[in-house]
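Provenance and format

Records in this collection were gathered into a single text stream. Each protein contributes a sequence line and a token line. The two records reproduced below are adjacent in the stream.
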Amino acid sequence: MFLGQTWHASRATSITFDETFFLGTALHTVRDHKLDPRLVAAGVAPVPVILAYLPALAGEQGAERSNLWLGEMGDAQKILRPRMMTAIVFGLPLIITMFLVVDRRCGFLAATLAAGLLSGSPTILASGSLATTDLAFGTASFLAVLATASWLDRPDQTRFVLWAAAIGIAIAAKYSGVFLLPVSGLFLAWKEWALLVGRRYGPISSHDWRRLSVKVLGKYLALLALAAGSCWFCHLLQTSGALKAVPFDQTAEYSPWIKLLGKGPIAEAVMTFAHEWIPRPSPVEGIFFQFQHSGWGHSAYLMGNFSKFGWWYFFPCAFAFKSTPVELAITLFLIGVGIRAAIITRLHPGRIDPLSLTVVVSTVIFCGLMIASPLNLGQRYILPVYPLLILLGIDQLVRKISNRPVVLATIAAGLLAGQVVSSRSVSSDFLVYFNSFCGGTSHGRWLLVDSSLDWGQGLKELKRFQDDHPERLALKYFGTALPQDYGVRAFNVDEAPLDVDSVRYFAISATYLQGDYTLEVDPFHPLRQLEADAKAGESILIYDLEQPDRRKALAASLAKLPDSKTSGEFLRWTSWRE
């Protein structure tokens, strides 16, 4: 079910923003037999590229690309194998692991239900049909949570090492995996405290507290060291220059080094040593870039509003908009179970089984960090939540009605049917899915854009439209692929001024139409007030300029473009003019 849908979807959509960059770095890596340093320098963890791209591109020969964010001819075919590798290497293990865990805890029927819900989720299918980092991170973080629960259940040395290794791999899959560090620290402290309380029959003395603190700190440092080693190994043990990039006398006043150490002779000695003698492991550079990115901010769109540093409620809204009715029902069910456990039964953490406790705490911490994040780039960033919700939801459901097999089978059939209906409602472009509660897929662009709806994947649909309507077309495209690579013949409005009377159709990506990435100018507001005459999927809207109101609105919009200086300007592709 999963492979069939992702195989079809991977061939029905054009290459997306990040895939162009990953493809370029992977081809460079294959050619030079060394991980392209530009990958980590851009804040991208390498595991997805190493496992999905490198095996798929092993026989390719690629020249140096001056701009890794700009696609080239032939990319449309090159991306197909990495996409299928992503589904096989990261998607199948996630689904199989889900089945095995639930089967062990709840039986075959519940395991089938959990695996079916996961393989029918539009969020999972969207990432499974693209060769990006999101599904890799979802799988790696899921396995890390299971490793945490395994150690919590039986804290021996072997499980401790596996736990640390799983955390390192998750961080090397996507640097958002650092959320596992506070999770692990919390469970280490809680487990050691529980063991101490279990051994003591009287009050805990201050000496006991000191010993506990030292023991927890020692174990946590050991865990961090093992996780760091695992993460660095996944970066192929590469370094990125000196730990401190510039000498002491060139260090800026706002540098973290100055803020932490000051400017005295000791600070100078430390910074000089770090600059001249200590190499900087690649993971350090990648994680540091992400912290910098948070400080810079990033253009974001939510329900007609724009922000560089996002909103705390962005991800809750994205989850509500893009989750299926079944996934929302499971979420509400779990919230109800949690409230009942906290208020009515007053359940103590020690009475919760390790896996349920780990899933709850990990989900809460991850969601809390995402809500606090100033980067609201898309719903795909919360993909790890979905496997955890399905695992916990099915587990709790079975516990409630395990003695009523007919009811359980009926509910399972209904949930699976609902999930399949939701995933099939968007045919093959799972990225554009929005549930019916918020207006459905056709209303999606008024709620979210960018990678939650329009990530450059609509060129194949645009080609189908152009085959039926061969008149001249102008295009404002949000993406990194070359339209020519998909057979699209279009005038690029970013390349040169457009005479609106010289073309019949104007196609524009939903992200630009809604005003995102236009530095608050919102040039296409006049055009947005008019109903599109056609669509290429849901990500590209098309206007027939034979109608005077559309031509007038487009002219007014294009008049603002020279001043807007869109942030996508460096992605301009060279059109050819018929």
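Adjacent record:
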Amino acid sequence: WEEMLSTKGLTVVDVYQQWCGPCRAVVSLLRKIKNELGDDLLHFATAEADSIDALEKYRGKCEPTFLFYGGGELVGVLRGANAPLLQRMIVEELGKEKLVLEQGGERKAVNDGLVDDEKKEEETPQQSENEESIIVPASKSYTVAIIKPDAVAHGKANEIIMKIQDAGFEILAHEERTLTEIEARDFYQHKAAEACFEDLVQFMSSGPSHILVLSQAEGSANVVPSWREFIGPADIEEARREKPESLRAQYGTQTLFNAVHGSEDIDQASRELAFFFPNFRTASVTEQDGEEEHVERTLALIRPDIAREKRDEILAQIHKSGFTVALQREVMLTGEQVRQFYFQHVEEDYFPALLRSMTSGPVLALALARSGAVHHWKNILGPSDVNKAREESPDLRAQFAVENEPINQLHGSASHEEAEQEINFFFPKQQTLAVIKPDAMEEHREKILEEIRGSGFSVTQLKETVLSREMAEEFYKEHREKPFFGQLVEFMCRGPCMMLILTKENAVEEWRAMMGPTDPDQAKATCPNSLRARFASNILHNSVHGSSSEQHAEEKISFIFGDICSDAEPTGDGETDTTTLADNSDSFYELSELKYLF
């Protein structure tokens, strides 16, 4: 490491974890840059964080990290495998290093922004904040850009991204993603009546696209028209004739394969942002001033030995510490499930005691929410070693330790990534059926869809349909004996409605809460922000429908969409569900992998 730091020139170091190896995705890019520049002052290196003391702070990080060193000083840091940005930084930092060597200037060392010690960690509780959140000042305008599969397949994505940046656009978010046919159909629903719709859906789901959120300098004019001017007309011949410098003129081949997409107006940009980046939001003034923090979740487990007798006391301390219990579930774990959950600890000497403790009775699982949840919950738990906790810390593990029991009685997630995986393990995703009724379709459909995605629901499937009388009667068969049944059926058949399968933890109850009471007048009085309070006109024309229970949801989903396989496990009708956790080891690993793949 010391020898590398003393190398003359600019050295770019790919810092990696032992379990995953160097970032292979950029190896060809680095080789290309080296060959093109042919500069003896440019060097590339890989470094395993696990075995180099100087890189201790980078251990356990799942995000690719590239460090730029000049003259032994850290002069640049890039997190994430953003190829265009990496290429640009290499060229820029190499130029700066040459100026220093030639003219004897002073290097501008940078702070890598990582927490160096526990004291700093206490001072910056937001360090573990959800990295997937995208927060920008409210003064900036933004739009969605898509580099379509045809341009990506021809290797033009990086070139287009460089041109976007050179034109003065700022990339706020960037994700490579292959749309499913359902997603493509949903995204281009506004073009469903056009003759090319099916071809468009097939094309957009044929391969990877690059999805970008673009902005311009703070305080500048609306970015949407600037971006549409830059990409040119959708028709390639028109683009080549009237805007030969536009992206579509340069990279498109025909109207369908026109290389790039741009939102048509601000409203469409907002809908598209909600579709691709549900965690995208603008910062309020207080957030920009640092007075407001982002809310995240962590998993807490109260183990069986104290779950029954001490739960109320522990929950009181949890609430006192500023946490909200977002999800709560009491479960009996099998030995195999404990091994799956604690797979990293199976070989440890203490694991038999842990296994015995975790299977001795119901475990209370809690998803806790607050700003800096992971950090704060770990802090109030204290050391994991019971003896050390008793000696050094008055925190929860010391307070609720069981005599002659070597295992601590409370669990907390170690990181934000681990928290989401563990929450998925104990609170598997649930599905519910949602319906946007005919009265809301024309005026409020897009707003409702936007709010659905903004509330964290995934739209697994959707279809727009006009119900026949027979279908409507079967759909509402539980109301057959009620006096309003005939009116309800007639209303549901009078125009198109949209059927959606929504997926989320506790999806049934969360969707019902989002809808509000059936009667809009009651909704306005008790839940003024609910969908029915804002969009419904009366108890019959109440805009949306939702399943009343998970069993009801399964029946209606099967009726509308046919038999669909779901990994979601029932969580019951109450706030706290006491049941046996079904063997969901496959779904646990699928969820944890998909989190990083998509």
